[in-house]
């Protein structure tokens, strides 16, 4: 994680906040004897958290309203966020505990990443090896996935939350937190198969290939629901607001326009699948799509057709009880659920 403490939520309750470029999502989860209960959820339009010197009054009011709508007294929050300036790379490092890797990167990223990345925050996950017996062998090196974001963005987000007296327990990138959500909803399948998890946001899509529920390969692509809306504006000659409305109410008549808009994403997914299957000598048979754009079933259907692999519309709150959002918006909670569920 970029910022925070590795401790579990107190009293079995956790609030997950996910800050995207188009929407802010919040979910309050509670562990019961029967499983995970949703105590409340909120979706609101996002505001830019970009004031360098002080917290914007509009941002403070929006954050306070977001927490108030959850109707909870819990003020400890776990934060997930996405940003166009985020990136991921895979590197080979000397074997050491993950916490030591994070510390080493923050002290001297240039030594390990062979580039000067001062002013960034780093998160690290160990990558699964293609060889199933690799973990059993002693090795002087390890392959890790390093995710990074500008420290200034992370601190601005933390400061905005603290300004409304929310206690920030951790801040993490959505590209990694969504993995926790899939591990909960498809635990058995994670153990048996190599899976593809897509998180299609407003301006960015992440591709995670998972073995045993852990990443083998992760890629970020600057493509999301905004690009689909822009294509609809050009094809239909309508306003941005009307394009967003029609995107939410997609019909089969719009399939040719959607196919055209999805081509860049489809090409990246297909080439990534081919690479993983060759590199790791495996077969990808299951794929899941989360994120706001995945709330429309037509997007998953058209992507499935173009790349030749069934992509399931994924609900990260599947199996939860309580105040559960309907399936049209549930996929957008993957980041918020992922950052909270790992603390329960």
Please sum up the structure shown.
With 344 residues, this protein is α/β, with parallel strands linked by helices.
What features would you describe in this structure?
The strands form 3 sheets. Strands 1-9-5-2-3-4-15 form a 7-stranded mixed sheet, with helices on both faces. The longest helix has 26 residues, at 255-280. Strand 3 and strand 4 (35-45) form a beta hairpin. It is built from 11 helices and 15 strands. The radius of gyration is 20 Å and the shape is globular. It has a domain at 87-149: 2-Layer Sandwich (Dna Ligase, domain 1), CATH 3.30.1490. The chain starts with a strand and ends with a helix. It has 344 residues and is α/β, with parallel strands linked by helices. Helices cover 36% and strands 29% of the residues. The model has no long low-confidence stretch (mean pLDDT 87).
Number of strands: 15
The strand line-up of the biggest sheet is 1-9-5-2-3-4-15
Overall mean pLDDT: 87
Helix content: 25-40%
Structural class: alpha/beta
């Amino acid at each position: 994680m970029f910022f925070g403490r590795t401790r579990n939520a107190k009293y079995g309750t956790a609030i997950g906040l996910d800050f995207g470029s188009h929407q802010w999502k919040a979910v309050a989860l509670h562990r019961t004897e029967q499983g995970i209960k949703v105590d409340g959820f909120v979706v609101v339009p996002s505001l830019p958290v970009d004031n360098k010197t002080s917290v914007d009054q509009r941002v403070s009011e929006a954050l306070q309203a977001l927490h108030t709508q959850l109707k909870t007294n819990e003020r400890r929050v776990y934060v997930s966020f996405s940003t166009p300036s985020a990136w991921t790379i895979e590197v080979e490092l000397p074997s050491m505990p993950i916490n030591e890797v994070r510390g080493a990167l923050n002290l001297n990223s240039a030594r390990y990443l062979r580039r000067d990345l001062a002013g960034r925050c780093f998160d690290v996950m160990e990558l699964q090896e293609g060889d199933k017996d690799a973990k059993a062998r002693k090795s002087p090196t390890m392959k890790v996935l390093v995710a990074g974001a500008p420290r200034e963005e992370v601190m601005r987000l933390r400061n905005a939350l603290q300004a409304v007296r929310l206690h920030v327990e951790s801040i993490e990138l959505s590209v990694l937190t969504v993995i926790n959500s899939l591990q909960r909803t498809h635990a058995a399948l994670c153990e048996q198969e190599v899976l593809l998890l897509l998180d299609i946001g407003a301006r960015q899509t992440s591709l995670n290939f998972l073995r045993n529920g852990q990443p083998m390969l992760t890629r970020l692509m600057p493509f999301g629901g905004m690009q689909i809306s822009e294509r609809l504006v050009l094809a239909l000659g309508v306003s941005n607001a009307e394009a967003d409305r029609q995107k939410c109410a997609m019909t089969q008549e719009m399939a040719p326009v959607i196919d055209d808009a999805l081509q860049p994403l489809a090409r990246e997914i297909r080439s990534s699948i081919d690479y993983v299957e060759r590199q790791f000598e495996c077969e990808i048979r299951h794929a899941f799509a989360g994120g706001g754009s995945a709330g429309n079933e037509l997007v998953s259907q058209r992507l499935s057709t173009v790349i030749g692999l069934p992509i399931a519309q994924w609900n990260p709150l599947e199996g939860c009880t309580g105040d559960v959002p309907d399936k049209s918006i549930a996929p957008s909670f993957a980041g918020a659920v992922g950052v909270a569920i790992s603390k329960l």
